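Re-run with default settings, no changes from the original entry. Doing this only to confirm the output is reproducible before filing.
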Amino acid sequence: MSELSYANTGTVLKGHPAVLNNYNSFPHHSVNRSGADYPLLGLSPSIQRIQSQIEFAARTSYPVFISGESGTEKRSIASLIHLNRPEGKGRFILIPPTIHNQSQFKAYLESSLNQAKQGTLYLSEVDVLPQEKKDYLTTLFSQEEFQRSLAEKKVQLIISCTESLNSAGGNRQFLAKLLGTEIPHLELHIPPVRERKQDLSNHIDHILNKIQSFTTTRFTPEAIQLLHKYHWPGNVEQLQRVVVTLASCCGNDIDVTDIQNLDLFPESETFDIVEAVLSQEFSGFRHLHPGLLKALNYMSNNFTEELTLADLSNSAYTSQSHLSYLFRQHIGFSFKSLLVKVRIRYAKQMIDESPMMKVTEVCLQSGFGDLSHFEKMFKRNVGCTPRQYRQKERDKVRFSNAT
């Protein structure tokens, strides 16, 4: 029996995974992307995949687990699953993580289950719940009575979290227990905005269209390019705030200066990735993809050794092709280019500290195995040969001693 056949029978077969990610053979129909608080926008591969998964989820009764960073469209996905259900639609009921009292949380969950008949029960951001509530949910979801109640009332359970079931975060054990291996479920992951930059213009157009009744604001092409360079740690929520703020206090044509003058971005965009690798200080790069951060950490510990993309790929548990894409998308150049820049910067530091050091020693200790290649890369990145640079540093030392 195929995994998809297993999924549609509703039975749990030994040896089969309980997570349903195979949707390619499911009959496809057009999914209504609108109607939610915020629509699902863009044509990136990840958005097209999610659209197919929304369709699959809407036509099954299995629980759905939605993961994604804060500010991504998790609630929109939950709403779209609800809106695209072919059966008679009940209510879409949200249970936020902000109900602090344990007894109130239990009471609200119980009453919401009754009110969500033939509808959807959506528990958002369960990973931020205090441990007491996490334990309660783990126990509740494991009870046959609760699962039977969902089935009898035809309630679709949707859960969202900032971490995926496969993440290495502190909530991994809790998330694994929450639905367990005995409950078939579908997992959807919405990538952060920085990983689907091709959809950014769709979001900007949508936000501007929402306020077009009282403004004719538009962005210059250069301003759009600047917005594309930003990594958007707050994702779509932050993008909405930025666009609306700009529209409220700038002229009809928003340019680069308008964006820079408002200082809308709290994090500096002047981080030096080469210096970060050399100093092993990545606090300014927490917005990067986890796999890319692991690769950069590995590079910072091994850049003087023989290093390949395959080595970084293994350390980051990420395919070479995807890691190569991440380097170009988020760093701005390839793995090899960054490695050369790091080694050249390190070579300069060695010459600065020891101007009498032999160039061949600098070459070998900075990770270059071939002297001619080292000299070529040094001149390309610094503007002079290693010997010329060393001579300048020696002259500085002589001048300093003379004075």
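The domain at 344-403 is CATH 1.10.10.60 (Arc Repressor Mutant, subunit A). Confidence is low (pLDDT under 50) at residues 1-32.
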